[in-house]
């Protein structure tokens, strides 16, 4: 289609250049054959210049989109990284137990927008396995962002082991919790760097984490072992393997709280079973908050929180909620079978 258009444009330009000479011959006006030939030659070459102009204008438009994005970042209000509590006031082993109290929590993404979580109250005991479910847009992922203070908590609070997270410096808060996202994140470098970016663990600890995630044999077979290369975004590994690497990284960090935000959404059922088995064994003494993509993945949870339109509508163990046929959790289980 593009070649056909270019041919038509050339024909139109050539005709436009030839028309004056044809008209001058018809009306008996003097004309120079050399000037006519020169005009036709330039008419043939001007289309190349037009293509160059269009191509550069398109390239300019793409580059200006990047400038617009940077300009929007410059106008974005900066997060309060300092907090109101000094780092020295936070114990080095915080959070030690993993107790979570959610008190009258209200969350929004912007002061001009409506709240996405409304007056949520919940208590998660240390070492408890908690499942969070609800329909799309119910506020599940917003709660996971609230744990890392990445959204506007304008009312209420989240208290972890006796400390209000909104008062903590962001670096302290986010470095003490572990999360596994729906889209696994690996960095360019080595497997060792991805498991232990701060270089604080021994090789035995890293191999133990890989064995727990059932990746030890695969990594041993790679050239360099722990020093094997990880390409940009971890593209040289499958999605399931990347998710298991993220699980091993969470185990290495020794955080007492692990948040799984729809971590099984992009992996097959076999890898999901491995992930669930590892969570229930290797993280048996840690608090695990599972935001469910498949409701079946939280049927064994000790507590289930069911959200609807940003409101916590049900909170109980899975068997108790399933015993109530009219409960929203029962409806979700039936519709997802």
From TrEMBL:
Family matches, as Gene3D superfamilies: ABC transporter type 1, transmembrane domain, P-loop containing nucleotide triphosphate hydrolases
InterPro entries, alphabetized: AAA+_ATPase, ABC1_TM_sf, ABC_transporter-like_ATP-bd, ABC_transporter-like_CS, ABC_transporter_C-like, P-loop_NTPase
Pfam families: ABC_tran
PROSITE patterns on file: ABC_TRANSPORTER_1 (PS00211), ABC_TRANSPORTER_2 (PS50893)
SMART domains attached to this UniProt entry: AAA
Domain ABC transporter per the UniProt entry, residue ranges: 100-334
GO CC field: membrane
Coiled-coil residues: none
Highest taxon of the lineage: Eukaryota
Keyword vocabulary terms for this entry: ATP-binding, Membrane, Nucleotide-binding, Transmembrane, Transmembrane helix
MF GO annotations: ATP binding; ATP hydrolysis activity; ATPase-coupled transmembrane transporter activity
Keyword ATP-binding part of the UniProt annotation: yes
The protein's name: ABC transporter domain-containing protein
Provenance organism: Periophthalmus magnuspinnatus
